[in-house]
Amino acid sequence: MSSTITTIxxxxxxxxxxxxxxxxxxxxxLMMWFFIVSDALTFAxxxxxxxxxxxxxxxxxxxADEVFTHFPFLHGIDAPMYYVALMTFVLIFSSxxxxxxxxxxxxMQKGKVAFYMLLTIIGGAIFxxxxxxxxxxxxxxxxxxxETKGGxxxxxxxxxxxxxxxxxxxxxxxxxxxxxxESKNGVWYIGEGSLPSYTTQEVIxxxxxDSDIVIKTEKIDKNGHKIILSREESLNKxxxxxxxxxxxxxINNEYxxxxxxxxxxxxxxFHGFHVLSGVIINIIIFFxxxxxxxxxxxxxxxxxKVGLYWHFVDLVWxxxxxxxxxx
Amino acid sequence: MENSTHKLEIFRGLVxxxxxxxxxxxxxxxxxVVTIVEVALGIIKPEVLIVNxxxxxxxxxxxxxxxxxxxxxxxxxxxxxxxxxxxGLQFSVIVTLSFLIAYLAFILLVEGNxxxxxxxxxxxxxxx
Lengths: 327, 128
Hints:
Chain A is of the alpha+beta class. Chain A has 10 helices and 5 strands; from the N terminus they run ααααββααββαβααα. Chain A has 2 domains: about 35-140 and about 260-325, Four Helix Bundle (Hemerythrin (Met), subunit A); about 145-245, no CATH class. In chain A, about 55% of the residues lie in helices and about 10% in strands. A 5-stranded antiparallel β-sheet of chain A has the order 4-3-2-1-5, with helices on one face. By secondary structure, chain B is mainly α. Chain B folds into 2 domains: about 1-85; about 85-130. Chain B has a two-stranded antiparallel ribbon. In chain B, strands 3-4 form a two-stranded antiparallel sheet. Chain B is elongated and about 65 Å long.
């Protein structure tokens, strides 16, 4: 590999300043590859940790299809994964406009580079917005659930239709005084977030009163479906409920295992942060293109470097999509 | 800059393109098809692919992971222009990543599985 050998009597003697080209690649692009490799390892660490927790809770991990069922403007319609698939397309498409910008840069077409950069920025912004929407749905939750002392989540489902039932559909109102435990009262290190809409007692009473409701447990059967208890078993188990859980936060979530929401926030959040910084860098480069910085410099390599980063973000999403939503 | 030095063929020379732009569109088309297949499989979940497994992983998950790696290859090779780089750069990125990631995933997944077994077969009930 002659290209990797460094000799002092090259055209330029600037061995340490990034002057010569190992791997026939420019200094900047090579450094971007260094960054990408290390960042890829970071994401690999996160996804492997996710895999670890998932293998550890193999028989009770939430099923992504049952969690991510929302699509904008389609309320109450079960649309598993369509929205994430759409987000994936948006990101892949913005990757394509980025390559087209790089390609236009090779031909020194300033107008085209700017146009494609703009499309890329728009695509990235749509993706970040979609992710924010996904997060807000995830945090707000839809049906609500109860949590047992051991941290298991019980969801509710209609015996007749087999559809999930939300807490507000059956919980009874029991007039009582409810006080939020704030850390300034009593033991200083124990606080409480905002109170759920119903007390555990209200949910339990409502559950006992309505003979149509059964419990959907966390456990998964051999065919990958959640195990649904019979009415008798449900009546037995409901007494173990200690908490009402609505939506998701870092402590518990209505979808199942506590770690599920943590990994969701952490991995998609870290990826979303990459997309956000990618959009910001793209905007900077976009304005540099507009004012003609690279035209004066004689090449559009900066577009190529930021392009590498942008494709990498897309690449990571492909993996996150598979391991979080599909597998 | 490496003008006009793009390698304009994909699928091991099966498909050749006249310009880099048309190659990019073709790769987009290919990636879209793969994604649609993945999503369709994820929604339909064919019984055959779920019940049967190979090396203790469901067939459907094998398909997802293989298709993901295929997508990753084309994103890296054509969008990130890895196809046009010298061998040395290709190898120093790919070998490093695939070795370290495979190692990390192997260790963590085996360990996760072991802890599952311990909790499953142990006499202590963890989820009460």
